[in-house]
Amino acid sequence: SWTMESFIDKEIERIRQMVGPVGHVVGAVSGGVDSTVAAKLMNEAIGHRFHAILVDNGVMRLNECQVVKKMLGDKMGIDIKVVDAADLFLGRLKGVEDPEKKRKIIGNTFIEVFEAEAALLDKEHGGEIEYLLQGTLYPDVIESISFKGPSATIKTHHNVGGLLEDMKLKLIEPLRELFKDEVRELGRLLGLDDELVWRHPFPGPGIAIRVVGEVTKEQVEIARLADHIYIEEIKKNGFYRQISQAYAALLPIKTVGVMGDKRTYEQAIALRAITTVDFMTADVFSSFEWFECLKRISSRIINEVQGVNRVFYDVSTKPPATVELC
Ligand code: XMP
Q1: Rounded distance between C-alpha atoms, residue 252 and residue 268, angstroms
Q2: Ligand 1 site: residues with CB under 6 angstroms?
Q3: Closest CA to 243 of 169, 314, 319
Q4: How far apart are CA 304 and CA 298, in angstroms?
Q5: Residue ranges of the GMPS ATP-PPase domain (predicted)?
Q6: pLDDT digit string (tens) for 87-98?
Q7: Closest atom, ligand 1, to C-alpha of 107
Q8: Which residue among 105, 111, 279 has the greatest number of ligand 1 atoms within 8 angstroms of its CB, and so is best to mutate?
């Protein structure tokens, strides 16, 4: 009978057979569940012949790149390189307000940076990189043709044309028969921390699609700080596992407020918290206790985040709204 333990053994053996005794594998990681579990599996199978690349696109969460590097590199022993491309991404996003344009810029820049890095690694390892790891899940295989970010970015051949064609890389997709809950179980059995196994999903275009309007360093900083406070309080108050996905977004709308005895005229933060099974439809997370918690979070954000004087809670369901604002 099928068990996750036997899946692990079989998959590690299959990977070893595929890659052979000298081959190397490269893959993008984001710190999300899928790419981390896939990376861990590769590390178990071929050790440091698997190379993880984390692209810092300038729109990651607070301290995220350092945290992910520590977790995958130091704690899990995975060979990981963080590529700081923040200025490149933010430079290209300058003046861009249209959501789809933002997504395209980030997607294309990601592929460009990742491909260049993979080529460098290939040189370093004597041209022995033969495979590209992707954390594709079963639902991605059956339903998704749309562009998704880092963890799933390089999901279609089309998106990594360069790597698959120029470097003649072959795809390796160890999670392609699994559903999300199975990936979490796999992660748990592979010894990943609960914190990681139960992480909310985070979109490839990151905070850029959570800053409405132009994405600047300053705007990202505001959304990032508010989000950090929000998630910290959600965890502290025991709501994290009840919520499927939560985040703070920045609305570039100035309204009037009062701080001490002074008038303020600042931007607003929107808080989102949804429950869902498949992310195709979503409900708003709500309860009396949650609303009390939201009020405390609101006052923390307004007090601690400069440039914000108002907090909204997004009560729209999907459909007609979407999970992300952009
Ligand atoms: P929407 O906004 O479409 O989001 O209701 C549904 C789920 O998908 C995530 N999402 C993305 N994930 N790249 C990703 O990797 C993306 O471009 C992207 N856009 C949305 C979103 O966070 C939610 O979980």
Answers
A1: 7
A2: 103, 148-149, 151-152, 201, 203-205, 245, 279, 318, 322-324
A3: 314
A4: 10
A5: 2-199
A6: 999 999 999 999
A7: 17
A8: 279
